[in-house]
Design brief:
- This protein has about 425 residues and is an alpha+beta fold.
- The protein has a domain at about 10-300: Phosphatase 2c, domain 1 (4-Layer Sandwich), CATH 3.60.40.
- Helices cover about 25% and strands about 25% of the residues.
- It has helices at about 65-80, 90-105, 105-110, 160-165, 225-230, 235-245, 250-265, 290-320, 330-335, 385-390; strands at about 5-20, 20-35, 40-45, 55-60, 115, 120-125, 125-135, 135-140, 145-150, 170, 175, 185, 210-215, 220-225, 280-285, 395-400.
- Strands 3, 4, 5, 6, 7, 12, 13 and 16 form an 8-stranded antiparallel β-sheet that branches. The chain has a 6-stranded antiparallel β-sheet with strand order 1-2-15-14-8-9.
- Helix 1 crosses helix 2 (about 90-105), helix 6 (about 235-245) crosses helix 7 and helix 6 crosses helix 8.
- The relative contact order is 0.18.
Length: about 425
């Protein structure tokens, strides 16, 4: 994990925006790490393709430079690809490679031993494309159920290990050449120097996998986050957490903050789990309806799941009562003994390849360093004026290389292309 602070930095940069189709919230937090190296972007309408939305999280390592550059520029490289109008998937794949090549040719970036994951969700004409390089992740809730949109790129994956070996590298301690814990990334040019190999064949490549989905009115929300979240909770557990929060009428930026506090380790002795930088974007699908419609759908889905769980447990208890005492299932505390101290399952979830629910995990809100429940003080209701102002906010990018400032209240109305949260850094992408 490297060096850690003596106390976690829990101040947050949060923002929200919305239009008739999406209500979006985001937040990032430095946590126990010495520096903040994440970046994220949410744009409701791309300047080069109005009506197309773009959401992305970049988890930097070895420094923030690559994540910052990607946050400012990746969407431009994608939309300017010649095949973008007809083949968005290939535009995404080659846009990632174009950005990587541009950084390689940038003297200020080329010599940095830094890199970044990138997970992007682009929605165009009711078609969703999720491009991923690394171990940040995107999931969706569709008709109340989980849909995993990306797959983690780890050196231990058979396909990834084969490419690493073919390029002259090796996997040791579950890391590329013994030190990089992911097998695809932007940057990391020290691991892309085999002159005999194409960019897609290097031991670490920026070439993303792309998943496609058709968006219908059954889509509820997306969660896009760095591995600081997924190392602690499975995709199913995150989906259920967000679903329950929406069902209580909480707004997405507050949900992001609550989720990060849920995942924050109570101390820095957790082996890195819950001690990483954290960044989360929650995208709620409105489908032209008020947010309250989604709140009601999530509330009904939660009630249905809870009733089903209660029924299964009741049936299980009746079955156990008829068995000899020696054959009873061990108590939950014993069955959960192999989970991490902050609710992390022992088998690391890697996209939909090994997802399972965390029914036996810790309570939804873990205590923070002060011994109190990890819920930020702000209430679920926002001032009506701020909520109305958010509808005109279409573009937001955060590049968090400096110390995270204390989150300010969202009280001032936003102009057409400004984030409502004035504490977030603004970048003009036009």
């Amino acid at each position: 994990m490297g060096q850690s602070l003596s106390e976690p930095e829990t101040s947050k940069q949060s923002a929200f925006c919305q239009n008739d189709y999406y209500k979006v919230g985001s937040s990032c937090m430095q946590g126990w790490r010495m520096h903040m190296e994440d970046s994220h972007t949410h744009i409701l309408s791309l300047p080069d393709d109005p009506g197309t939305s773009f959401f992305a999280v970049y988890d930097g390592h070895g420094g923030a430079k690559v994540a910052e550059y990607a946050g400012k520029h990746l969407h431009k490289y994608i939309t300017r690809r010649p095949e973008y109008a007809e083949d968005v998937k290939h535009a995404l794949q080659h846009g990632f490679l174009d950005l990587d090549e541009a950084m390689l040719n940038n003297e200020a970036l080329r010599e940095h031993m830094a890199g970044s994951t990138a997970v992007v969700v682009l929605i165009k004409d009711n078609r969703l494309y999720c491009a991923n390089a690394g171990d940040s992740r995107a999931i969706a809730c569709v008709d109340g159920r989980l849909d995993v949109l990306s797959f983690d790129h780890k050196p231990t994956n058979e396909k990834e290990r084969e490419r690493i070996s073919s390029a002259g590298g090796y996997v040791e301690y579950n890391r590329v050449n013994g030190y990089l814990a992911l097998s695809r990334a932007l940057g990391d040019f020290g691991l892309k120097r085999n002159a005999q190999m194409l960019p897609t064949e290097q031991m670490v490549t920026a070439y993303p996998d792309v998943e496609e989905r058709e968006v219908s009115e059954s889509w509820d929300f997306l969660v896009i986050a760095c591995d600081g979240i997924w190392d602690v909770l499975s995709s199913q557990a995150v989906m259920e957490f967000v679903q329950e929060e929406i069902g209580q009428g909480i707004y997405p930026q507050q949900i992001c903050e609550n989720l990060m506090m849920r995942c924050l380790a109570p101390d820095c002795q957790m082996g890195g789990i819950g001690g990483d930088n954290m960044t989360v974007i929650v995208v709620c699908f409105l489908h032209g309806q008020p947010y309250e419609e989604l709140v009601q759908r999530c509330k009904e889905a939660v009630a249905k799941r809870q009733a089903s769980t209660k029924k299964r447990r009741s049936h299980s208890n009746r079955s156990h009562e008829s068995e000899p005492e020696s054959s009873h299932t061990p108590p939950a505390s014993e069955r959960a003994g192999k989970a991490g101290g902050n609710g992390r399952l022992e088998d690391e979830s890697s996209g939909s390849e090994s997802e399972r629910s965390e029914e036996l995990a810790a309570p939804l809100l873990a205590p923070n360093a002060n011994g109190k429940d990890g819920v930020v003080e702000s209430t679920t209701a926002e001032p009506e004026a701020a909520e109305k102002a958010s509808s005109s906010s279409t573009e937001h990018t955060v590049t968090s290389s400096v110390e995270v400032k204390q989150k300010q209240k969202e009280s001032a109305p936003a102009s057409n292309n400004e984030s409502v949260d004035e504490s977030s850094e603004e970048i003009d992408l036009k």
